[in-house]
Amino acid sequence: MVLQSSLKNCLQLSCILRTPKAGFRSTTSGSLIIQSISNDVYQNLAVEDWIHDHMNLENRQVLFLWRNSPAVVIGRHQNPWQECNLKLMRQKNIKLARRRSGGGTVYHDLGNINLTFFTTRKKYERMENLKLVVKALKALRPQLDVHVTDRYDILLDRQYKISGTAAKLGRTTAYHHCTLLCNADKFVLSSVLKSPYKGLKSNATPSVPASVKNLFEEDPSLTWKMLLDAIAEEYATQHQIDHHITLINPADETALPGINNKAKELQSWEWVYGKTPKFSVSTCFNMVHKDSVLDVKVDMDVKHGRIEVCHINLPEQWLPPALCSELVKSLTGSKFCPNETTTLATTLLRVCPQDDELHSRWNLLCENMVMLM
Amino acid sequence: ARKFTDKHEWISVENGIGTVGISNFAQEALGDVVYCSLPEIGTKLSKHDEFGALESVKAASELYSPLSGEVTEVNAALADNPGLVNKSCYQDG
């Protein structure tokens, strides 16, 4: 029954989407509430792209509801090395996504709900949307102290951020999306949103850190589903439509032609890392080898995620100079990426004599270089 | 002569080189610009192609090319000083 229902809903959506501009006759505004059945951040971001590119919003607006399994989402013009702990994320299998809207970095998991309000560019109005969310929350739990700030955050008890906002303005369409913390893992959130990388200089847009709280902590009877339903109901009321949520499958190429390519692009290294504004890394680290401590200074310029310029200052003769200059030469032009650097370092080592001391020094240097990425 | 698109970009052409910017109306509507994402020199654009974006108050606003051609120069001052778009949208921004 559930399967049939969602299939029916998906077909309804594709009919609506294919209806030509003048064709949709309705006494209501014809606005839509859709919810993704996927928890994949790239697929869900692809749905936003798809709606932005393909839907005609002259006579209707759309509310898109989605949740993601653990992921860090950075803004369009941000630097992931500045914003989050990529090492920790790789260990914990937390995805990194770059969205197309502006704003700062957020952590998503299934305890967070995402809301995207689609309108024409003319009708773009973030404050109105956020007031709708606050109205819905207060209708559900009148005692909740929630309000919208002029930074478009939603604060709980005047102190804790429970929602952050970002937006994208296209030629004719705009979207405003925001998060809502229901029951997310705050420990993971704070540990992944803390960057361990030092010495970075960049004009990328920075995030503004805030203390956060889950609505669940304020009222343990609240679930994400209740919050989602309350918001959908308020949207339906304000847009004079039925409180009906259409489910969509972001992997359905028939309902959403071209969507899989969009998801693929959003996952690509070129988009996630390659779109990082130019930055420089200027740092030093100590290496402890046997009984000595060595100072190493590294300077790199990274453009489009690739190392454009690379300088490594090591104590003289600690490693064969020819080998060091080969390392610098190989790093130049390669991705600022731990895997790529490890591969390149391993390859270079193969042409060296089987000298344990040399190998151990080389590995130590390369491990430290990889730590910067 | 400066011509305007219906999306508030402007273009003025001299000796086959067009200079593109956004209008005063657009910069006011956007708010303080904090980042300019501009194309690489040599990028070939067709009319209506998205060539970059301006970010202001957490909103990324796409920029669309008012003409077809090849990018020969980009305003490098905007990298360190994106606010020039607000302060001087017809000259330095």
TrEMBL record, chain A:
Its EC number is 2.3.1.200. The keyword Transcription does not apply. One of its GO terms (molecular function) is lipoyltransferase activity. The keyword Transit peptide applies. Pfam families: LplA-B_cat. Its main location: mitochondrion. Pathway: Protein modification; protein lipoylation via exogenous pathway; protein N(6)-(lipoyl)lysine from lipoate: step 2/2. PROSITE patterns: BPL_LPL_CATALYTIC. Belongs to the LplA family. Lipoyl amidotransferase that catalyzes the transfer of lipoyl moieties from lipoyl-protein H of the glycine cleavage system (lipoyl-GCSH) to E2 subunits of the pyruvate dehydrogenase complex (PDCE2). Unable to catalyze the transfer of octanoyl from octanoyl-GCSH to PDCE2. In vitro, it is also able to catalyze the transfer of the lipoyl group from lipoyl-AMP to the specific lysine residue of lipoyl domains of lipoate-dependent enzymes but this reaction may not be physiologically relevant. This is Lipoyl amidotransferase LIPT1, mitochondrial. It comes from Antrostomus carolinensis.
UniProtKB/TrEMBL annotation, chain B:
Keywords: Lipoyl, Mitochondrion, Transit peptide. Residues 17-93 form the Lipoyl-binding domain. GO terms for biological process: glycine decarboxylation via glycine cleavage system; protein lipoylation. InterPro entries: 2-oxoA_DH_lipoyl-BS (IPR003016), Biotin_lipoyl (IPR000089), GCV_H (IPR002930), GCV_H/Fam206 (IPR033753), GCV_H_sub (IPR017453), Single_hybrid_motif (IPR011053). This is Glycine cleavage system H protein. Its cofactor is (R)-lipoate. The glycine cleavage system is composed of four proteins: P, T, L and H. NCBIfam families: gcvH (TIGR00527), PRK01202.1 (NF002270). The H protein shuttles the methylamine group of glycine from the P protein to the T protein. Binds 1 lipoyl cofactor covalently. One of its GO terms (cellular component) is glycine cleavage complex. It comes from the Eukaryota. It is found in: Mitochondrion. CDD domains: GCS_H (cd06848). Belongs to the GcvH family.
